[in-house]
Write a structure and sequence with these properties.
Blueprint (H helix, E strand, L loop, with lengths): L2 E4 L4 H8 L5 E3 L14 H20 L3 E12 L2 E3 L5 H11 L3 E12 L4 E12 L5 H10 L21 E3 L2 H5 L3 H11 L2
Parallel strand pairs: 1-2, 1-3
Antiparallel strand pairs: 3-4, 3-5, 5-6, 6-7
Length: 189
């Protein structure tokens, strides 16, 4: 069996992937995650996941299957990436307060030697309760919000503010397991 490389520095993705019991190593990608002018959120997240995987694949060589992913939060067509600072995190949480938004995670699996190149995207709808300024301030000091798309983590304290989701829970964490399993089943055979 080929070795599996997770092209991500995300501790949440490592945690989710470890559930499968497949040995893997981590090799973070070094790409800029900046949307291009006019690029839709769907096109951006797919491109970012693909570019991460290709970048790591070019360094690793042919003896591995590469798994990469990218997650974004989208509200009113605006991509909310990782906040620049705590003020930006507060701004994002104000945008999400009392509304529905989408979490998009794109996944790319590649094996250069066997010409395997699969990509897909999962969408989950997430609803936030109305948040007061006090709740927002408390949340940004309670959790490390700076490394999370949309400035929140559903698996942390933010769960207290999320009464409903439609779609895959692990997608909101950053790695939609059903999609990953389908892709890895073919790539690791």
């Amino acid at each position: 069996m080929k070795r599996l490389i997770l092209a991500s520095a995300s501790p949440r993705r490592r945690e989710i992937l470890s559930v499968l019991g497949i040995p893997f190593t981590v090799e973070p990608a070094g790409i800029d995650e900046i949307p291009r002018d006019g690029e839709s959120p769907e096109d951006f997240v797919r491109r970012a996941a693909r570019e991460k995987g290709i970048e790591v694949s070019s360094r690793i060589g042919d003896n591995a299957v590469i798994l990469s992913a990218d997650t974004i939060v989208v509200v009113d067509g605006e991509i909310l990436g990782k906040p620049r600072d705590l003020d930006d995190a507060r701004r994002m949480l104000r945008r999400l307060s009392g509304r529905e938004h989408a979490v998009l995670t794109a996944v790319w699996v590649g094996d250069h030697a066997r010409n395997i190149n699969r990509e897909g995207m999962e969408r989950t709808a997430v609803w936030f309760r109305e948040l007061s300024e006090e709740q927002i301030g408390d949340y940004v000091t309670r959790e490390d919000v700076l490394d999370k798309a949309g400035a929140y983590a559903i698996q942390g304290y933010a769960a207290a503010y999320i009464p409903r989701i439609e779609g895959n829970y692990f997608n909101v964490m950053g790695l939609p397991l059903p999609l990953v399993v389908d892709f890895l089943r073919q790539a690791l055979e």
